[in-house]
Amino acid sequence: MSERYLLGNEAIGRACLEANLDFASGYPGTPSSEIVDFLRYQKEREFYVEWSVNEKVAFENALGAAWTGVRSLVTMKHVGLNVAADPLMTSGYTGIKGGMVIVSSDDPYAHSSQNEQDSRNYAAFAKVPCLDPGDIQEAYSMMVSAYDLSEESGLPVIFRPTTRICHSKSNVSVGESGQEHRTAAFEKDPKQFVVIPVHTRVLHKKLNEKQKGLAERLVEMGFNRAEVRGKTAVVAAGISASYVEEIIPDDVSFAKIGAYPIDEEWLGEFAGKHEKILVVEELSPVVENVLRQVSCGAEVFGKKNGCVPYEGELDPASVALAFEKAGFEHKYEYTVPEPVRDLPPRPPILCAGCGHRAAFYAMKKVFGSKAIYPSDIGCYTLGIQLGTVDTTICMGASITVGSGIASAGEENDVVCSIGDSTFLHTGINGLINAAYNGANITVVILDNRITAMTGHQPNPNTGMTAKGVLSPSISLETLCRSCGVSFVETIDPYDLTGTLKMFEKAKAKKGVKVIIARQPCVIDAKRSGIKRKPVTVDAEICTGCGLCVKFGCPAIEFTDKKASVNSLCMGCGVCADICPAGAIRPEGKR
Amino acid sequence: MSESFDLLIVGVGGQGTVLASNIIGESCLIEKRSVRSAETHGMAQRGGSVETHIRIDGKYGSLISPGTADLIISFDLLEALRYSHFLKKGGKIISSSGIIVPVSAFQQNLEIPTPEELIERMSGFDLTVIDAEKIAGEAGSLLSQNVVMLGASASALPLKVESMTEAVQSLVPPKTVEINTRAFEYGFKAAQNNIS
Ligand code: SF4
Ligand code: SF4
Question: What is the CATH number of the domain that holds A554?
Answer without folding.
Answer: 3.30.70.20
